[in-house]
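Input (structure):
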């Protein structure tokens, strides 16, 4: 995939949102107005079906993981939800309204492989991009925005490297920078595409800690992940795919021998959830 610049790929005009009060964490169901409801979602690339008739709910106050084998449509599902690829059927609703009309509620962190790490920007520059919509283009950043960025960098343990060019960072450090950028957007929905690829254990621990903090604030978190190992314990709900929905629900409901056999064509060992 061709690399593109930060400003082209991650324009905050699409994904910035005002800060909202923290809400108490609570359970949701299929009728919840604070959930993302996906109905009969289908995606085709020309004549090739990438996803077919996906129906599921992504609850607020939960960390939801999208799992499945390579080529299962995990990233495609996330991009379809966010309107980054066209859908051939179905709809995606948030608070009973089309999510496409509410993208200012969303913070999206793509795969690191899609980012041009040679772009001449520092850690501070990248994280500050999350405040552009709040501030406005070609306007000076406010004291409030600078404080928000400072706190986000401290939260992910990157404040000491704020003046470092992003291309000089390790994979884990780069991922933490983009997590900080997402935090500055103060969104209601956080979407992460393969955030754990090529990172260190310290970064993984920091990311999961922040995910659970955001869930406790009743935010909605959707995470594409390929690892069916111990990391699944950090997810509240799972969506298991293989070009169609295999199962969705709690870990115990999804990680059954039958579901894993269907998703991975018998090529994964069953383990107790």
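Output (sequence):
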């Amino acid at each position: 995939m061709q690399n593109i610049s930060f400003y082209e790929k991650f324009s905050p005009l699409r994904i910035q949102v005002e800060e909202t009060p923290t809400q108490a964490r609570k359970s949701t169901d299929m009728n919840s107005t604070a959930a993302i409801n996906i109905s009969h979602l289908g995606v085709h690339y020309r004549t090739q079906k990438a996803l077919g008739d996906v129906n599921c709910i992504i609850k607020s106050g939960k960390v939801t993981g999208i799992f499945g084998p390579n080529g299962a449509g995990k990233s495609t599902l996330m991009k379809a939800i966010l309107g980054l690829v066209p859908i051939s059927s179905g709809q995606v609703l948030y608070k009973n309204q089309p999510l496409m009309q509410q993208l200012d509620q969303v913070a999206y962190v793509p795969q690191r492989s899609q980012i041009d790490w040679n772009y001449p920007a520092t850690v501070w520059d990248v994280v500050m991009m999350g405040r552009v919509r709040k501030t406005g283009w070609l306007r000076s950043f406010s004291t409030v925005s600078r404080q928000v960025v400072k706190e986000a960098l401290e939260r992910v343990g990157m404040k000491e490297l704020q003046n470092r060019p992003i291309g000089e960072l390790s994979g884990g450090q780069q991922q933490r920078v983009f997590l900080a950028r997402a935090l500055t957007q103060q969104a209601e929905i956080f979407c992460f595409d393969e955030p754990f690829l090529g990172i260190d254990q310290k970064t993984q621990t920091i990311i999961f800690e922040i995910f659970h903090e955001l869930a406790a604030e009743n935010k909605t978190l959707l995470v594409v992940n390929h690892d069916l190992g111990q990391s699944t314990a950090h997810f509240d709900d799972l969506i298991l795919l293989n070009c169609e929905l295999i199962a969705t629900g709690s870990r115990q409901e999804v990680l059954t021998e039958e579901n894993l056999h269907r998703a991975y064509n018998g090529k994964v060992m069953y383990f107790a959830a």
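Notes: Confidence is low (pLDDT under 50) at residues 1-32. The first strand starts at residue 36 and ends at 45.
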